[in-house]
UniProtKB/TrEMBL annotation:
This is Helix-turn-helix domain-containing protein. Residues 5-71 form the HTH iclR-type domain. It comes from Amycolatopsis carbonis. InterPro entries: Tscrpt_reg_IclR_N, WH-like_DNA-bd_sf, WH_DNA-bd_sf. GO terms for biological process: regulation of DNA-templated transcription. One of its GO terms (molecular function) is DNA binding. The lineage of its organism: Bacteria, Bacillati, Actinomycetota, Actinomycetes, Pseudonocardiales. It holds the Pfam family HTH_IclR. Gene3D superfamilies: Winged helix-like DNA-binding domain superfamily/Winged helix DNA-binding domain.
């Protein structure tokens, strides 16, 4: 796997954690909890989340400081019914 692919995998791990039942029940997860869940350093998680937030992929609640899925992900997900899934369809 390439270095950039490895970084992408780590970012996807953060998104998986933010999609978890725990995150949904808590209204998001903070940097410390995301570091625990993903096994990464807090500083790495913080930098990754800041970059993802700049792109609208995650959002940070200014009151709780928790991160949650961003509006950009929801916009992408709305495209699925229009464009369909890639690959063969089941019959």
């Amino acid at each position: 796997m390439t270095v950039s692919g490895h970084g992408l995998r780590r970012d996807l791990d953060l998104l998986e954690a933010l999609a978890s039942t725990e995150a949904q029940r808590a209204g998001g997860l903070g940097v410390v909890r995301l570091a625990e869940v993903t096994g990464r350093e807090k500083s790495q998680v913080s930098r990754a989340l800041k970059a993802l937030a700049l792109e609208g992929v995650v959002e940070r609640d200014p009151d709780t400081l928790r991160y949650c899925m961003g509006r950009r992900l929801f916009r992408w997900s709305r495209a699925v019914p229009r464009t369909g899934w890639c690959g063969p369809r089941s019959r």
